[in-house]
Amino acid sequence: MIIFAIVALVAGIILAVTLKKKYFIAIGAVVCVLAVAYTCVTTVPTGHTGVVTVFGRVADYTLDSGFHMKAPWEKIVLMDNRVQKRTENLACFSSDIQEVKMIYTVNYQISKKDAMTLYSTVGEAYYDTVITPNIAESVKVATAQYTAEDLVGKRDSLANDIETVLSEKLKSYNIDVVSTSIEDMDFTEAFTDAVEAKQVAAQNKLRAQTEAEQKIIEAQAAADVKKVNADAAAYEVLKKAEAEAEANTKLAASITDTLIDYLYAQGWDGKLPYIVSGKDGGLLINAADLIRPETSDGEAE
Fold first, then answer.
1. Which end of the chain has fewer beta carbons closer than 10 Å to its terminal beta carbon, N or C?
2. How far apart are the first and last CA of the chain?
3. What's the pLDDT at 9?
4. What 3-state DSSP class applies to 130?
């Protein structure tokens, strides 16, 4: 812009001399002043830091967001202090040499106080110069600590390990890692097929174990039912026997000689038995004749 102002001033002088009209000099001077004035003002957008350079050398101060005056020879480089997001497509290997393709996202930020240092040591293209290679290195280092099979089930743990390694690497450049995430991981078709086959086998094994356990439970339940039924039957027999024993005990306690004689008498038909006597049993005596009283003529009645 300063060169343009000088050119405008020289052109005005030349036209004034050639055409002998002095107002061309005035016009050139006005254009020159406006051009210089334009180079003396600058604005820094919100969320940015203005790094001041003088002929390529970084000044020892920065500009905050807003409107500022500056010298025409000063250049303002804008450094973004907002949280920025970048996504990388990476390829790496697990500890068992399985290729892993990963889509990795990082959110990062530089502070205002470190913007000048970062620009002076790395430059405006600090993402490509510093962040990109460190992302790739951190992902490779962390992924190599896991087997491919572990990577499938320990994705969150891997993401934390990568973020830890990356944060340490970028800290030395005054770049803060706000957050990171593994958007996607992809393995070779051969490994994917092997994992699926293993999962199917595990599911079949689990199903077989479940069915076996179910059968054991059902058999145990059936055995428990039989035991309960057997216990109930035994209990019923026991109670019946106890009742009969108690009845017999009470009955035995109630039987006396008097009762026996009474019952015997109740069942007697009034006839006395015959008595067999004699050597050969040839004499038959009626017991009634033995107790029947004799008549006056000596015969029994």
1. C
2. 179
3. 45
4. helix
Nearest-CA neighbor of 75 among 57, 87, 91, 88? 57
H or E segment to which residue 184 belongs: strand 175-187
Q: What's the pTM?
A: 0.54
* CA gap 28, 34 in Å, rounded: 10
| CA nearest neighbour of 49 among 57, 58, 40 | 58
How high does pLDDT run on average in the chain?
Answer: 78
SS3 state of residue 240: helix
Superfamily of 84-187 according to CATH:
Band 7 domain (3.30.479.30)
| Residue pLDDT, tens place only, 198-240 | 666 666 777 778 878 888 888 888 888 888 888 888 888 888 8
Categorize the per-residue pLDDT at 280 as very low, low, confident or very high, splitting at 50, 70 and 90. low
Query: What is the 3 state secondary structure string of 78-113?
Result: EEECCCEEEEEEEEEECCCCCEEEEEEEEEEEECHH
**Domains of the chain: which residue ranges?**
2-47+59-75, 84-187, 189-268, 270-301
- Which pLDDT score, from 0 to 100, does residue 88 have? 93
